[in-house]
Amino acid sequence: ARGNPLYYFTDERLGWHRQFVSPINALLNTFSHPQSVLEVFSAAVGVSFIVWAARSREWGYAAYMGTALASLMTSTTYLSLPRILVSFFPIPLLLAAYVKERKLVGGALLAISGIVAAVGVVAFTHGLGFY
Fold first, then answer.
1. N or C: which end of the chain has fewer CB within 10 A?
2. How many CB atoms lie within 10 A of CB 59?
3. What does the pLDDT look like over 22-33, one tens digit per residue?
4. Distance (Å, rounded) from C-alpha 90 to C-alpha 58?
5. CA–CA dist 80, 16 (Å, integer)
6. How far apart are CA 23 and CA 100, in angstroms?
7. For range 47-66, the mean pLDDT
8. What local confidence, expressed as pLDDT, does residue 82 receive?
9. pLDDT class of 129 with cuts at 50, 70, 90
10. CA atoms within 13 A of residue 89's CA, in its CB half-sphere
11. Whole-angstrom Cα distance, residue 93 to residue 99?
12. Counting beta carbons within 10 angstroms of the beta carbon of residue 42, is it exposed (0 to 12), middle (13 to 18) or buried (19 or more)?
């Protein structure tokens, strides 16, 4: 629509005051925010699933998650990483394939997912949201 496939970066700069920086600078800048532990943890989780997808030879999933995560991990700070993980549809697909034959692990994963979802609903309804 804008005639530039990289206009996303212009929107990031103009709308959110975020710009491209090295991953090291982005990580260091993240620690100036109160939610830094959650952001760095989310980055680690995201990278883990990218590696899992690549090791499973799910190249499309790895590329999709990798480019989305890389765009946020090379921005001014690690903001919105927990929220971007929710949009990574390959994560539940990878987990489902893993627990397919492991009923006990599947039950534990379902229980943990339910708890995380309930905490998310409570946080959101109290205005804390998963920014």
1. N
2. 11
3. 999 999 989 988
4. 9
5. 12
6. 36
7. 97
8. 86
9. low
10. 2
11. 10
12. buried
